[in-house]
Every structure is written in structure tokens, then in C-alpha cells.
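Notes taken during the Thursday session

The instructor put the following on the board and asked us to keep it in front of us for the whole hour. The protein is Nitroreductase. We were told not to look anything up and to reason only from what is written here. First, the residues (178 in total):
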Amino acid sequence: MKSKQTKAMSFLQLAAERCSTRSFRTDPIPDEVIGRILEAGRLAPSAKNLQPWHFTLVQTPAMLEKVHACYSRNWFHTAPAILIVSGRYENAWVRPADSYNSLETDLAITLDHMILAAAEEGVGTCWIGAFDLQVLKNALGMDEKEEIFAFTPLGYPTKDFTPVPKNRKSLSEMTTYR
Ligand SMILES: Cc1cc2nc3c(=O)[nH]c(=O)nc-3n(C[C@H](O)[C@H](O)[C@H](O)COP(=O)(O)O)c2cc1C
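Then, after some discussion, the predicted C-alpha cells were revealed:
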């Protein structure tokens, strides 16, 4: 992934180039870039269009330090911003047939939209799922009912950052044509 993206990529190119970034420069991301990333999340689809999400963008040094406590990796602590997507089960769609609640799906879709938008902007991201939920909720002052399944740091990759080559099963292993 280039550090400053100027030319629009095809979607497949974007999907191929998006990768987990685990080496961030500390310089801030311009507001207009952040704005476009958030806009991609706003436009995401959700069950019954309920949009049961809230975006928290952490950028102040004091809040960054608090949030760092939920995931103690040095590379995570250099990113200038952290984007957290949260929501409540009571605000998401429930499938009548079996009471499946779409909150986790809806939150994953909007975060993925923003992660892909960030990749198009040359901004590095990394899905983080292995965090301490309670520490994060306490840091953000969120109540028990607010759910967080994943978040991402946002930042430009360092010059020496090299993506791990894509390692995926073949299409034939994951697809059935019938
Ligand atoms: C739901 C989810 C949770 C993840 N949690 C973490 C995590 O806690 N820490 C981490 O370094 N990477 C995490 N990842 C990143 C994956 O390891 C990564 O996406 C995968 O190895 C494929 O690599 P790529 O993103 O570079 O294509 C997570 C990814 C997903 C989708």
C-alpha cells in the first residue's frame, strides 16, 4: 500500500492492496481524509437500514494513552488515531424467525467500509479483535450495553513497512457452484 494514494484504484486492486498495517508513522491524518473515511462508514448498509453504530475517533494524547491500555502492542501505540465502532443490540434488527440480532454484522460492515476507504487514502489500518473489552469501555466511559467487536488504529505506514504477502485459501476451496 502506497503512503499517499493519488489515483483511484479498481475495487479488486484495493482489496488486494489492503493489508494489516502494524508499523505506523506518528504524524496526524488530515481532517479531510478522516472525513472521507468516516463518510464511507456512514454510507454502509445495515439490516433494515437501522444504522445501529456509533463511531468514536480517538486522537487526543490523553485519550490515546487510555485506550492503549486495552491492547498492549508497541506498534499500536504509535498510530495517531484509533477508530472504534460501537453499538447496542437494542438498536439493531432482529430476525423474527430465529431472533438473530444483526448488530455484529452491521458493525463489521461499516468498519470494513472505513478500512477499505482508508486503504484508498493510503492510510494504514489493522482490525483489532484481541483487546480487553472492559478496559476499552472504561477508557471511553461507555456503559455496559454498548458493544464493541473490533476497532482499528489509523495512521500512515512507516517507510520500511512491508505488508505480509496475502495468504489465502484458493477460490475452489471456498466456493460451491451448483
Ligand atoms: C475480526 C478480526 C480480528 C482481528 N484481530 C486482530 C488483532 O487483534 N491483532 C492483529 O494484529 N490483527 C488482527 N486481525 C488482523 C488479521 O490477522 C489479518 O486481517 C489477517 O491475518 C489477514 O492479513 P491482512 O489483513 O494483511 O490481509 C484481525 C482481523 C479480523 C478480521
